[in-house]
Amino acid sequence: MSTVRHRPEGLEQLEAQTRFSRKELQILYRGFKNECPSGVVNEETFKDIYAQFFPQGDASTYAHFLFNAFDTDHNGSVSFEDFVMGLSILLRGTVQEKLNWAFNLYDINKDGYITKEEMLDIMKAIYDMMGKCTYPVLKEETPRQHVEVFFQKMDKNKDGVVTIDEFIDCCQNDENIMRSMHLFENVL
Amino acid sequence: MATGAAAWLPFARAAAIGWMPVASCPMPLAPRDNSKKEDELIMLNVSGRRFQTWRTTLDRYPDTLLGSSEKDFFYNEETKEYFFDRDPDVFRSILNFYRTGKLHYPRHECISSYDEELTFFGIIPEIIGDCCYEEYKDRKREKLERLQDDQEENKDAKLPNMNIRQTMWRAFENPHTSTMALVFYYVTGFFIAVSVITNVVETVPCGSTPHQKDMPCGERYTVAFFCMDTACVMIFTVEYLLRLFAAPSRYRFMRSVMSIIDVVAILPYYIGLVMTNNEDVSGAFVTLRVFRVFRIFKFSRHSQGLRILGYTLKSCASELGFLLFSLTMAIIIFATVMFYAEKGSSSSKFTSIPASFWYTIVTMTTLGYGDMVPKTIAGKIFGSICSLSGVLVIALPVPVIVSNFSRIYHQNQRADKRRAQKKARLTRIRIAKSGSANAFLQSKRNGLLNELLELTGTDEDEQRLIRSTSLLQSQHHHLLHCLEKTTAHEFVDEHMFEQNCLESALETYPTHSPSLSSQDSGTFCCCGQRRQTRNPLPHTADTPQGPLQELSALHIQSSQLMHPTSRSNLNLRPDDSSRINCKGGRVTTTIISLPSPPSLREGHHPHGPPQRRVPAIAPSIQTTTSSTPTNIIKVSAL
User: Fold this and answer.
1) What is the 3-state secondary structure (H, E, C) of B55-79?
2) pLDDT per residue over B38-91, tens digit each?
3) Is residue B257 within 8 Å of B281, Cβ to Cβ?
4) Which CDD domains match (chain B) (predicted)?
């Protein structure tokens, strides 16, 4: 066990950089530090934490993608700043920022395009979290079909990849998606 | 829910935004958090030591005392803190459980006091972390064994109204309980010794007489020996029949080892009586006399050491089996080798492989009689290998057997020591208790005196008498008095009770025996129940609904109570539940620190991480909302 310790930036700086109030940052940090006393989360711990919420299925793949989305500087660990920045976007950001974040999540190799394979991976990861016991029963080709539907909707120019603009455009035209973006605003 | 989960829930929900764009159907509405309270510090005063923690920390485990509204019962308005009159040292571990999500067992604490504290605060011991769980279980097991031993001791206790059969059985099993039993014990022991000695002496050649050659004593003094044998067998037969009569379960008695030994010991005599005149079977009859030697095993009733040896051999059966097996293998191998090695030499004693077995056995066990020795060089080489390996093969299982013996022996020693200590302890307790019982009788007499004094005495006398009993005592005595009036019976002391018993065997008195009843009530009925009414997390303020039916159904052990009751109902009927849980003396602490989050909806939004210790439960909860008898999980502490 390495004694990696990470002390976050000061409260004022974080307050300035994110859209959380002082009190909220305090609460967030207390929870964060309680679970990860060393101040950083590595991928294993991240997977464990996330898996606790989805006991039926296997959340490790999705947690892996999520970890990469949070770990913006790609140093293999999520510090409190990464954590709080991510949350700030997700909970207090504009719709544009949120969609940006989601695109970033789907774009596994961060090259600016979502390919069918990437989307398939993400979809399989999401369906893995459901586990075996579902109704109706999960079939093998369900993720693939879902990906097809997604691409049909998003890929305007039918070039086989989805760019950020196509994505944002398409999402903004979809009422359901717009509404669900505001769903978790009162989480904290 | 583990700490981390509670703290990271907002994160997980926020990350759910990642699913939105790929979702094919609209999302359900988020639960509204109406009770938006600021997090506050709670002061817990445990016997003077103050602990402080956030309210949300305690709220992590809503089905414990501290996490639910049950702690409001302990709220002290003046000092604005929660006061618990419990052990502050043990409370430390309990509070740490809320903080870190892991329950540790402090090794220096007594296991019973720790258990009591856990029960009080509504925490099931199964949550104890891996680091401490083994130790906890070991200590628990020791305590149970000790309790069992004590229970068995109580079985010795003389129950009133035992019939002849039971008294006899008790006398047979525990010779120290009555003088008759002791006499019987020694008499049988004596006769066993006599019988064995007779058998031995029978074969010794008595001095030669002029007209007869040396013959064994048995044939010389046939009549005397026959009489001796008859006497012994008669005693043994009587003993066996008496035991058979007194045994509570005759079938089981007949199957037990001791009774088989008894039968084997006396049967040859009877068979001999029957077939003395038949020439053909007299040979077989002689063989039967060998079985008379088994009488010596009857001594095991008299000697504890023999019994321990027997237990040891039984418990080491597998090691002994292994020893036997490996020896057999080695014998066969070496016998074969020796046979072929010695085949060449002339006048070799190794005529066949079975003949070589004898040599191998004698060599491997390092006996070395010398009646068979190898003559060829090859034979000598293999012979030496044989003897060296013999030592090894035999030495291997011996330490296991020895350690087993030592363990059982020490256990027995400890049991004896505990018995002796217990005797002394109980006597002292009995004296103290009888003091208080006598106090009641004394006060009754004083009551009479009081009345007398009222009529005749002075004020000072009255004052003195009244002051001599404290308020607590007088209230207690009043209670006993009420009981007397209720049952229309009176309390009397032991001496008078026995007298009355002898006088009229029909009367039944309320037994005022303190030790037995209080022990029972103290040790076996402890029902800790916790139910929770609060929402676990301030953020997810779901209305407590149906999903918790499963949990409440889960923690009721008997299947009659399968009607789904909501949590609030359970709270309103504490008496019923407590009575139910006490039924049959089974302890079921109905604490579920399972995933309590109320948003346990079927399928869609699986929520709430299970406790580490009970991961298997979670799937079953989430797939069936209707509480079913099949999902009963007995969560028991003891």
Assistant:
1) HHHHHCCCCCCCCCHHHHHHEECCC
2) 678 999 999 999 999 988 888 888 888 888 888 888 888 898 899 999 999 999
3) no
4) BTB_POZ_KCND3 (cd18419)
Alpha-carbon distance of B592 to B635, in angstroms, equals 8
- Tokens representing B396 are 């291997």
Instruction: Residue B356: give its domain's CATH number.
Output: 1.10.287.70
Same domain, residue pair B242 and B323? no
Does the structure show a pLDDT above 90 at B358? yes
Does the residue B150 lie in any domain?
Answer: yes
Span B569-585, average pLDDT: 39
Query: Which 17-76 residues of chain B touch chain A by CB within 8 A?
Result: 17-27, 29-30, 32-33, 39
pLDDT digits (tens, 9 = 90+) for B527-565: 333 433 333 333 433 333 433 333 333 333 333 333 443
Find the domain containing B212 and state its range: 174-302
Q: Where in chain A is the domain with CATH 1.10.238.10?
A: 21-91, 96-186
Are B128 and B235 in a shared domain? no
pLDDT confidence tier of residue B419, bands split at 50, 70 and 90: confident
Q: Does residue B411 belong to any structural domain of this protein?
A: yes
Given B281, B302, B323, the domain boundary residue is B302
3-state secondary structure (DSSP) of residue B531: coil
Q: Check: pTM over 0.90? Answer yes or no.
A: no
Classify A113 as helix, strand or coil: strand
Both B221 and B297 in a single domain?
yes
Q: Is residue B103 included in any domain, yes or no?
A: yes
Q: What is the CATH number of the domain that holds B134?
A: 3.30.710.10
Final residue of a structural domain among B242, B276, B302: B302
What is the helix (H) or strand (E) element at residue B356, kind and residue range? helix B353-364
Q: Which of A39-48, B45-54, B249-258, B428-437 has the lowest mean pLDDT?
A: B428-437
What mean pLDDT is predicted for residues A55-70?
87
To the nearest whole Å, the CA of A31 is away from the closest chain B CA by 5
Cβ-based burial of A22 (10 A; exposed 0-12, middle 13-18, buried ≥19): exposed
∠ CA B583-B123-B108, rounded to 5°: 110
How buried is B365 (Cβ within 10 angstroms: 0-12 exposed, 13-18 middle, 19+ buried)?
Answer: middle
Which residue out of B1, B17, B40 would a mutagenesis test of the A interface target, given it has the greatest number of A Cβ atoms within 10 Å?
A: B17
Q: Which residues contact B82 (CB under 8 A, 6 or more apart)?
A: B42, B43, B44, B45, B71, B74, B75, B76
Give me the pLDDT at residue B386, please: 92
Superfamily of domain A21-91: EF-hand (1.10.238.10)
Residues of A in contact with B624 (CB under 8 A): none
The backbone region for B493, taken as left when phi is positive above 0, alpha when psi lies in -120 to 50, beta otherwise, is beta
- Do B257 and B377 lie in a common domain? no
Is B247 part of any domain?
A: yes
Quick one: B270 and B362 in the same domain?
no
Residues B288 and B367 grouped into a single domain: no
Q: Does B624 touch chain A (CB under 8 A)?
A: no
**Mean pLDDT score across all residues of chain B:** 72
Q: What is the pLDDT of residue B487?
A: 60
Question: B380-418, pLDDT tens digit by residue?
Answer: 999 999 999 988 887 877 888 888 888 888 888 877 887
CATH code of domain A96-186: 1.10.238.10
Distances from the Cα of B346 to the Cαs of B342, B351, B355, B372, B524, in angstroms? 8, 10, 16, 13, 80
Contact (CB<8Å) B23/A176: yes
Among chain B residues, the shortest Cα distance to A184 is held by B14
Evaluate whether ipTM surpasses 0.85: no
Into how many domains does chain B fold?
Answer: 3
